[in-house]
Amino acid sequence: MIGDIAVRIRELVRQICSAQQAEIIRGKVAKEHVHIYVSAPPYISISKLMQLIKGATSRKIQQEYPELKKRYWSKHFWAIGYFACTAGNVTDEMIQQYIDSHGQDEDFGNFKVEN
Predict the structure, then answer these.
(1) Domain ranges of the chain
(2) Average pLDDT by consecutive 10-residue portion of the chain (115 residues)?
(3) Any idea which fold 2-106+108-112 has?
(4) For 37, phi and psi rounded to 5 degrees?
(5) Global pTM?
């Protein structure tokens, strides 16, 4: 079941990012956290994007997996806060080299679910 939830979280994050014109470059859904490396348009703040991702995924996951409501009784599926940083101090070539040096997961578009 945890694997199903992780896959569903990945699907939801993809949908939200797509709706906001934010491109997921790389990502990983791990057991207790999610990492995403995104390219977001300048008109959406990181805080707004994270609010949309965390709010929508929490609501949908708790609706689709009602057994989680017992575990997250106060409706806090995600921890308060997040970590974000920008890639402003690197060149486009450095980012491209980073991306090229990591293998692409053809099945999941560089957004993996950790086992």
Answers:
(1) 2-106+108-112
(2) 84 95 87 85 93 92 83 72 76 65 54 69
(3) Alpha-Beta Plaits (3.30.70)
(4) -110, 110
(5) 0.72
